[in-house]
Structure formats: structure tokens, C-alpha cells
Write a structure and sequence with these properties.
Distance between the termini: 37 Å
Structural class: mainly alpha
Order of helices and strands: HHHHHH
Radius of gyration: 18 Å
Number of domains: 1
Number of helices: 6
Keywords: Membrane, Transmembrane, Transmembrane helix
Largest sheet: none
Number of strands: 0
Strand content: under 5%
Shape: globular
Protein name: YeeE/YedE family protein
Helix content: 55-70%
Length: about 150
């Protein structure tokens, strides 16, 4: 049985959202407790992150044995061997946002189904930030890639 790309994306997204809910990553209080290493640290999410690293490592090993992915014409993997200023700046901005709000994009989008005002506010702010990036730096990034 071959799944279409939209069906595969839907199933993958539902599985990802279920994993986020099950793991506790959709609970900002739990996330902030994990990030508070100097206070009342909650180490439970370390198992979730460790599992994610393990799955990613297995995925890279599997990719090395494949000539092409099952549902795409080619693999899309990072090609830069060293981090650059844009990556480091983006990672820092992501970390600051995660630490301030207790949400990162995946759990926030999955949390939209709950309809809670903090989730809605975070996703709205995230979308505004994405739009601002597209208007300012996004055009330059597309031009460089072309």
C-alpha cells in the first residue's frame, strides 16, 4: 500500500502531536521546570529529549544505507559542516522564546486544539515573527540559495 504525500503528512503530524501531548512538551509549566536547572529542576523531559536524539541518530544511520527516501526524490539534510551566525542567532532566539514562554513551535501548533489563550497568543506572535522574517531577511536568504 502506498500512501499519498498529504496522507503521509497527516499521519506523521498526528503521530507527532500525540507524542508531544504524551511526553508533556505541550505543558509550558513542565517545560519551564525542565529549563530551570538552577531552581526546582524537573529532569523528566531529559528522557524525551534523549529519545528524540536516539531516533534521529537511527534515522541518519538508515539514511546512509538508502539511495533515496521512500516518499521524496532526494534527502533534504543540512550541508554546512560548521554553524554560521544565522544558525547560532536563530538557535539563541529559539531558546530565549522557549525559556520565556514555555512553548516551542511544534508543541504550540499541536496545542492549538486546546484553544487556550496563551497558546493562541504564542502562535499569533510566532506567525508575526515569521512574516517579519520573510519581509526582512527572508528575501535575501531566497536570493542567496538561487
Amino acid at each position: 500500500m502506498t500512501l499519498s504525500h498529504p496522507a503521509t503528512a497527516l499521519i506523521s503530524g498526528l503521530l507527532f502531536g500525540f507524542g508531544l501531548a504524551l511526553s508533556g512538551l505541550m505543558d509550558p509549566e513542565r517545560v519551564l521546570g525542565f529549563l530551570d536547572v538552577a531552581g526546582t529542576w524537573d529532569p523528566s523531559l531529559a528522557f524525551v529529549l534523549g529519545g528524540a536524539v536516539g531516533v534521529s541518530a537511527l534515522g541518519y544511520r538508515l539514511k546512509a544505507r538508502m539511495t533515496r527516501p521512500w516518499l521524496a526524490p532526494r534527502f533534504e539534510v543540512p550541508t554546512h559542516a560548521r554553524p554560521d551566525a544565522r544558525l547560532l542567532g536563530g538557535a539563541a532566539l529559539f531558546g530565549v522564546g522557549w525559556g520565556l514562554a514555555g512553548f516551542c513551535p511544534g508543541p504550540a501548533v499541536a496545542g492549538l486544539v486546546l484553544g487556550l489563550p496563551p497558546v493562541l497568543l504564542f502562535v499569533a506572535a510566532m506567525l508575526v515573527g515569521m512574516l517579519l522574517h520573510r519581509v526582512t531577511a527572508g528575501g535575501r536568504a531566497v536570493a542567496r540559495r538561487a
